Amino acid sequence: MSFPAHAVRLGLRRGCAEFLQSLRSTQDQGFYLFTGLLVLGYLFLRRNTEVEGTDLLLPSVALPSILGALITFGVVIGPAYALAMEKEDGTLLRHKAVPHGLVGYFTSQLFFQSASLVPQLLVILVPAFFLFDNLMAEPSGWFTVLWVLVLGLLAAMPIGIVIGALVPGTQKVGTGHAPRDGPRRDLRDLLPAAAAVGVGAGRRAGLPDVLDRAGHALGLPSRAGRRARGR
Fold first, then answer.
1. Is residue 188 assigned to a domain?
2. Is 229 a member of any domain?
3. Domain-embedded: residue 217
4. SS3 of residue 50 by DSSP
5. Per-residue confidence at 13, pLDDT binned at 50, 70, 90?
6. Measured distance CA(10)–CA(16) in Å, rounded
7. How many domains does the chain contain in total?
8. Half-sphere exposure at residue 22, Cβ-oriented, CA atoms within 13 angstroms
9. For the segment 145-204, what is each residue's pLDDT rounded down to a tens digit?
10. pLDDT at site 179
11. What domain range includes position 89?
């Protein structure tokens, strides 16, 4: 059987069209900006915090882990929701009926899910290099970023595809409900808990009193209240 080059080209064209449509979507733009502001805001508040046992500041240590978590979340939950949803609405069945249709479908998904990481990374990395010092010790570090990113995609994206192929519907992906906007809705459901954890950690580190007001909005006890109960 010859290599289905035509199906691959159609898949790349479809993936490119979906990516460009995503860039024009105000919903996706809001998602990228919101998560970027959360990450940068937290790191900015901790910009002068040294990691114990090293001479490194927290942003230099925490940023790679945060980016890794966002990338893993995106390339696992994103394909899982897409595949589960398109199984339900018959899109996948129509691709199966076309010669090499699945090759084109999965090519488009690989391109779209991989390209969707670019805006997320740019929104975080570009401001981070202006806000924080010593994020990249040597230019050769970018090569390390590239091969780790490719390796992470190869390791994590098949997991999302397998999950999407095995679950009976979108209700079984993620938190057990079926959000129309997929992983972005799923992440927004987790944001209040993540914000509460971040505010609590910041207050324990002695960060500005503004975190007490943020903690009060999230229903967390203030430092003064905790000291009063301690007495």
1. no
2. no
3. no
4. strand
5. very high
6. 10
7. 1
8. 21
9. 888 888 888 888 888 888 888 887 777 676 444 444 444 444 444 444 444 444 444 444
10. 42
11. 5-179
Packing angle between helix 5-24 and helix 101-115, nearest 10 degrees?
A: 40
What CA dihedral angle connects 112, 118, 119 and 123, to 10 degrees? 160
* Cβ atoms of 94 and 101 closer than 8 Å: yes
**Rounded to whole angstroms, how far apart are CA atoms 19 and 21?**
5
CA dihedral 206, 209, 212, 213 (to 10 degrees): -160
Q: What pTM was computed for the model?
A: 0.67
Which of residues 8 and 53 earns the better pLDDT score?
8
Please give the Cα distance from 139 to 89 (Å, whole number).
47
Contact 9, 105 (CB under 8 A): no
Please indicate, yes or no, if residue 187 is contained in any of the structural domains.
Answer: no
Which runs of E-coded beta strand occur in 26-128?
none
3-class secondary structure, 203: helix
At a CB cut-off of 8 Å and minimum separation 6, what does 78 contact? Answer: 113, 116, 160, 182, 183
Q: Is the pLDDT of residue 131 over 50?
A: yes
